[in-house]
Amino acid sequence: MEQEPLQSGKSFLKETGQPHGGTVFLILTPLILCVGAIGTGWLVYWLPKTAYAGSSWQIISAVVAVQAFLLTFLLFLVFPKYREFSDQASTIIEATAVKGERYVRALSGSGLGYWDLDIETGEVFMSASMMSMLGYSDRDRLDNFQFWLNSVHPDDAEGLKRTMEYHIDKRTPDYSIEYRIKRANGEYVWVADKGRAITDVTTGKTIKLAGVTQDVSNVKRVQEVLESRTLELEEAQNKIEQEMQNVRKFQKAVDSSTEAVSITTPDGAIVYVNPAWSALNGFTEAEALGRNPRLLKSEDTKTDIFVAMWEKIAAGVPFHTEDVMNRRKDGSVYQAELSIFPIREGAQTLFYVALTQDITLRKDVDRAKTEFVSLASHQLRTPLSAIRWYSEMLLSKYVGELNEKQRQYVKEIYSGNLRMVELVNALLNVSRIDLGTFAVEPEPVNLVEICDSVIMELTPGINERKQTIERIYASAPGTYIADPKLIRIVFQNFLSNAVKYTQPEGHVAVEIATKENNLYIRVTDNGYGIPKAQHSKIFEKLFRADNVRQKDTEGTGLGMYIVKAIVESSGGKIWFDSEENQGTTFHVLLPMSGMTKKSGMKGLS
Amino acid sequence: MEEEKKMRILILEDERQLAKAVRDAFTDRGFEAIVVATVGDGIKQLENLKMVDIIWLDHYLLGAENGLDFVVQLKNHSSWKNIPIFVVSNNATTTNIRSYIQLGVTNYYTKADYDISQIINDIKYALAQKASAQA
After folding, report:
1. For residue B2, what pLDDT band results from cuts at 50, 70 and 90?
2. For a designed S-S bond to A143, which of A38, A147, A366, A382 qualifies (C-beta 3.0 to 4.6 A apart)?
């Protein structure tokens, strides 16, 4: 292994120390020179007086020559030692220079700048690499500390000074700080200093602070990016945690819901059921997961319900029904209210959420109530008939003349009874609709005739209110297959409402037409209209709009419910436009093929 | 002046209140009205009276048999099968009404929806048709 040149120099010095003989040479040379000079002087003085006066110059020359010989001898004795030492020294110097150069190269290669600060004088030495880092010419520079401080970013200068002072006061083991410093072009770079105080060995006083500076702007930039990324990640994590919390919240809610909830993938595998679902259907979660919801299917469900269901949910629209019959694990069947909500992302369905409720009891209660209404209405008919007939007979010529007042009163009884009969009939119709027992008995009918006969019945009222009625029959079909009673109920309700809920001198129009292979019926008035807020309730049972309730007390609130049921049971559509105080238009579309026969216990009356 | 022969109507109606109203209405208009409340009594009256011109029939009657049973018996009887029958009921089902029509009754009415005079007018019209057909 090659020994470090500096190391070898140091070890050489240690091993050999300074060469011997130098001191002897330094002492002996003047001694020899002095003794020689004095001796020569004395000889010059003394010899002429002696017998050797004749050969004085030879003797003196000989003495000087001895002197010179002695000195030369000494010189030759010491010189090689010094020569050797000088050789060693130059090796060391060379090694030091090489080492220094290596450091310089290392400094410039590493991008480190070297500096030292003389604490006493405030002079700062900055290496060429340091200067070039700051964008100055690539040369060492000696300058005042103020230059440095001026270059430091104003926000960081105080911190830098304090950190230096702390270290100089030995309160910190190292001097280490990051700060921004201005480059020659005026832009700031992030740099990191590392340094150490240099102490005078003898006084123990800190005299210098030396260290290196590194351009860490890249690191800083990366750090900043990392920080912002970290921040983003933290935010994302927070969001995820929040979402997780939401999910947990909803999961808890769904888990503890009393309504049976199941989640199914689009290809029909159950991926979640809540405890209520298991309790309702008798299948445990483990038994249900992965299976198709068909495991609840019973033959009691009409197949067209599933057709309608797929049509809706495949289109991403929620589906609702009360007519599904589900089979439990133990084989028992219950009537279910089923709502399916497709959960979508864009055009893709992720899964279906299904809510199921056992409505067997509710349906039974509903049915019992409807049956009660039906029964009660039937029972009411007999006493109503009695009132009708006796009041009729009182008004007839056969029992003698009543006086005018008596006649008026009996007429009121008679017309009051008629209202009651109408109400009972409407209630019976509703109960037949609700029980699904109403019959449809289609036959070819002339719609124009039926409509005209309804108008005929209403004519006294129309005349009394001086209203005009417009009939648009231009494209009416000659015959149409319909239950005459049902279609009559439709016209009767539309037209009597239009007349009743239109001011005197108002206008009513009725249209029967063929439209896009459908039968189209329209009844328009320019009357009171329906308040916007109550549009959604128009077809509800026993609903009457606020504005007409104040004008007319006689409506039952059952008419439009019945009309809608008739239209929809015939595969038709009903809708309306209405604006309060502007008027109302009802539209009906029925399939051109006509109504389909449906056997039932009772027709509507 | 010979008095016009009184038309005879057999009324099968079990509700006392309604039976009285119907009987009075017909009597007022010059009919001879006989009221019974069961199918059995109705048959008995037919046997006793030999002939009635018209029958007013409720569906639900006292006793086990209803209006349909009565119509079936009449239609199976050679001398009674042509008597016009007007079914006037409040509670007959669609199926029952269809059965009545199929069995050949003249008409069906829901009581609460009609004045007696409307029904009597129809009956008079039917009797006039029948008389002109026989003449």
Report:
1. very low
2. A147
Residue A512 has a pLDDT of 95
Q: Are residues A477 and A569 in the same domain?
A: yes
In this structure, are A147 and A202 located in the same domain? Answer: yes
Q: ipTM score of the complex?
A: 0.92
pLDDT tens digit string along A307-360?
A: 888 888 888 899 999 889 999 999 999 999 999 999 998 888 899 999 999 999
Q: What CA–CA distance (Å, rounded) separates A464 from A419?
A: 19
How many Å lie between the alpha carbon of A278 and the closest alpha carbon of chain B? 44
Q: Could you tell me which chain A residue has the CA closest to the CA of B91?
A: A378
Residues 6+ apart with CB under 8 A from A381: A421, A424, B90, B91, B110, B111, B112
Separation between Cα atoms, residue A62 and residue A34, nearest integer Å: 16
Give the tens place of pLDDT for each residue, B52-106.
Answer: 999 999 999 999 999 999 999 999 998 898 899 999 998 878 888 889 999 999 9
User: Are the C-beta atoms of residues A175 and A196 closer than 8 Å to each other?
Assistant: yes
How many domains does chain A fold into? 5
A543 touches chain B (CB under 8 A): no
Residue A341: which CATH number?
A: 3.30.450.20
Residue among B21, B90, B116 whose CB faces A378 most closely:
B90
Query: Do A291 and A169 have their domain in common?
Result: no
Q: Closest residue of A to B27, CA-based? A: A398
What CA–CA distance (Å, rounded) separates A559 from A562? 5
Q: Which residues pair with A595 in a beta bridge?
A: none
Task: Tell me the residue range of the domain where A538 lies.
Answer: 438-591
pLDDT at A507: 95
Q: Which of A189, A182, A192 is nearest to A221 (CA)?
A: A189
Residue A262, judged by CB atoms within 10 A of its CB (0-12, 13-18, 19+), counts as buried
Looking at residue A2, its pLDDT comes to: 43
Same-domain status, A371 and A444 = no
What is the bridge-based pairing of β-strands B54-57 and B85-89? parallel
Residue in chain A closest to B111 (alpha carbons) equals A385
Query: Are A389 and B115 an interchain contact pair (Cβ–Cβ within 8 Å)?
Result: yes
Q: Do A425 and B112 touch (CB under 8 A)?
A: yes
Q: Is A94 on the interface with B (CB under 8 A)?
A: no
A vs B, Cβ pairs < 8 A, gives 62
Res A601: pLDDT? 62
Rounded Cα gap, residues A297 and A10, in angstroms: 99
pLDDT at B1: 40
Q: Which domains does chain B have, with CATH numbers?
A: 8-134 (3.40.50.2300)
At B21-62, the pLDDT tens digits run 999 999 999 999 999 999 999 999 999 987 899 999 999 999
Q: Which residue has the tokens 């609903």?
A: A543
Cβ contacts of A566 within 8 Å, gap of 6 or more: A486, A487, A489, A490, A604
Intervals of chain A under pLDDT 50: 1-3
Which one, of A596, A545, A601, lies nearest residue A569 by Cα? A596
Model pTM score: 0.58
Record: contact A389-B116, CB cut-off 8 A = yes
Residues A449 and A575 in one domain: yes
Answer yes or no: do B18 and A386 touch at CB < 8 A: yes
Could you give the residue ranges of the DSSP H alpha helices within A465-591? Answer: 484-500, 546-549, 559-569
